[in-house]
Give the backbone structure.
Amino acid sequence: MKLYGFWRSSAAYRVRIALNLKGLDAEQSFVHLRKGEQRAPDFLTLNPQGLVPSLIEGDRAFTQSLAIVEYLEETHPAPAFLPKDAMARARVRALALAIACDIHPLNNLRVLVYLKREMKQEQATIDEWYRHWVREGFTGIEQMLATSKETGKFCHGDAPGLADICLVPQIYNAQRLACDLAPYPTIMRIHAACQALAAFQNAAPEQQGDAE
Amino acid sequence: MKLYGFWRSSAAYRVRIALNLKGLDAEQSFVHLRKGEQRAPDFLTLNPQGLVPSLIEGDRAFTQSLAIVEYLEETHPAPAFLPKDAMARARVRALALAIACDIHPLNNLRVLVYLKREMKQEQATIDEWYRHWVREGFTGIEQMLATSKETGKFCHGDAPGLADICLVPQIYNAQRLACDLAPYPTIMRIHAACQALAAFQNAAPEQQGDAE
């Protein structure tokens, strides 16, 4: 397998965590998002959206981090990222999607660049935009985690799974932008539990070959 | 089952299509997003994110449209929304997520309201923002669909599935904002195939009890 990513891409970071948790090796190839390498014609054949990550297996190019993680889960079931019970699976997927749909897309590099270049916004306004969507998202997620008996050491029970895979890269981003994370004690407790694991540590942006 | 939604919410629209395709009945309850009913304390107990949809079954409240659709797929497997093969499932999920993560969240009502109220943007600038993300997203998705032999009458093969469930509400939104859809002939051909089906027709915003 070969993973096309970028050290600071949270979507690529998710896939790196997932590969590590499953104990899978993937050769890494770096796509420099700030240099626009994601829009090179060769890369667009691997990901017509011009986004990272892409995971290559044989002659197949997989895109969209959550689709890739679900694929890894289906093809390498142990250790499991999702519980067995359908209701519990829906809970874990909802937590993951609350990050992957409702926080991250709004704070993605291409969006911040659009706010700056096309909409001529000041950096302070863009930073507040960023923090606003983190607050909106984490407020709901903290509530979902803090009020459920299914929350354990991790987002669901005592083993890391799909929701944790999305949570850690989102916190990395939030910390970069100096978001106040004190209002989210459950999220931060789970984050600390994840960060104690080598699978998460080794997936961190600063550990990647293209880190600057 | 009871579905909390709003006629114009594309996330609720997805779940309505899914319920119809599976032949499932759900009582509908309406949450008026423009009146802020999604932030009422009672509703926040059903969805701490303050978003629609929420699907209630027994004492359980499910959130996040894609998590709900996957739950319906797991608990009511026929007709299937996802193919059997893991690689093909990843393709369908990637198409769905390309919409659900990379187009829709940027054009959601709460985001447009933020651009207007907090960032004081003109309506023309907001409309161009909207159309920009539709173009970005549909350009990649058209390519993914047009270049794959797995695309059939629908996004994957000849039966509607998860990707089609996401595509149709996104086109409804794009048409409302007068986006030019001529550059996406494959998307529009699939859209027409979906719209020929009662499951999609009956899920349309204008068919709902709270339509204005």
In short: The first strand of chain A starts at residue 2 and ends at 5. The first helix of chain A runs from residue 10 to 22.
